[in-house]
Amino acid sequence: MLQLSSLLCGLLIVLIVLALQGSLVDSQDRSAPYPSLDNYHTILARLEAIEAGQAAMKRSLNNVDARMLVKLEAIENTLARIVRQQAAIQATPLSNHSKIDSRAVPPNFEGIAGRYFYIERSLVTTWASAVATCRDMGGSLATFRNETELNEVRKHLPNGSSYWLGLNDRKKEGEFVSAASGKPAKYFKWFQNEPSNTGNYQHCVSFYNGEMYDIACDEYLYFICQDTE
Ligand SMILES: [Ca+2]
After folding, report:
1. How far is the CA of 192 from the centre of ligand 1 (A)?
2. 201 Cα: distance to centroid of ligand 1 (angstroms)
3. Cα-to-centroid distance, 151 and ligand 1 (Å)
4. Residue 113 C-alpha to ligand 1 middle, in angstroms?
5. C-alpha of residue 22 to centroid of ligand 1, in Å
6. H/E/C letters for each residue in 10-29?
7. pLDDT confidence of residue 4
8. 183 alpha carbon to ligand 1 midpoint, in Å?
């Protein structure tokens, strides 16, 4: 009798446990399609994050717009400046006026005696490097066409400094050719007893206090570029 009641009791416990498990599984199944409160909060947080991301993107696009406007304005200002310069050049009575109008002036070149020159006053270099630098700037190492040009450029140079000119006689001793054209140069203003070719290695022309010297091409000097031959 005691054994039977123990057996029934055990059976009852097993049934209760099975029933409880069944209800738990049931409740889990039901809960799956309906998010819990926690899930709502997570989704809400994610939506808010997406919204914040959109707002940040909008702000960033606005910034890009503003930067583009600034750049456009800078381009417009530059164009306006070029137009003003062009008008000023056209209004200037220069002998070789039409030549200057028809081409762009390299930046940093200054108008001297109806042409454009760039005077390098702070860096010294060899003759060959000066030729290359002037070419990179859109010009060539300068030569003077006449005394007027020489005197006008000289007014822009401090006394006591040497500048390379675009003249050398490396190919044929005594025949000084223009670096820009490769043709024999026509105008010189040599210092007394120059060109001397002292030591037989002075093949490049420097300009010092208004006069020309042949000196070694690997000396380090300032230089003058021109925009046209
Ligand atoms: Ca010399």
Report:
1. 10
2. 9
3. 21
4. 28
5. 112
6. HHHHHHHHHHHHHHHHHHHH
7. 47
8. 21
**Domain residue limits, the chain:** 30-91, 100-226
pLDDT reported for residue 38 = 82
**CATH code of the domain made up of 100-226:** 3.10.100.10
pLDDT band at 56 (very low <50, low <70, confident <90, very high): confident
pTM over 0.70: no
Find the 20 Cα to ligand 1 centroid distance in Å. 114
Share of the chain above pLDDT 70, in %: 69
- Exposure letters 1-13 (e unless 16+ CB within 10 A, then b): eeeeeeeeeeeee
Q: Pick the closest to residue 127 from 177, 76, 163, 174 (CA basis).
A: 163
Question: How many Å lie between the centroid of ligand 1 and the Cα of residue 216?
Answer: 8
